[in-house]
Amino acid sequence: MSKKKTPLVWYVKWIATMAVLVSVSFRYAGIEYHVLDLAFGSAGAVMWLWVSILWNDRALIILNTVMFIMLFGGLLKNLF
Q1: Is 56 strand, coil or helix?
Q2: pTM of the model
């Protein structure tokens, strides 16, 4: 009996989902966690962007590209 290998995209998808959920949790926690919200949201969006490119899902590509640009831009604005 051989073990089935789980593709990397499966792990990235779930890590990205957890990052987005952590981001929303920081958003709910308050304004003092704004930078962490932006950081985890950016990380989740870029991971989901990678997954959506592999899946060739245009709707997800557009959504996650725009989300990453906005969140990462906000992160840079807050850090510098």
Answers
A1: coil
A2: 0.90
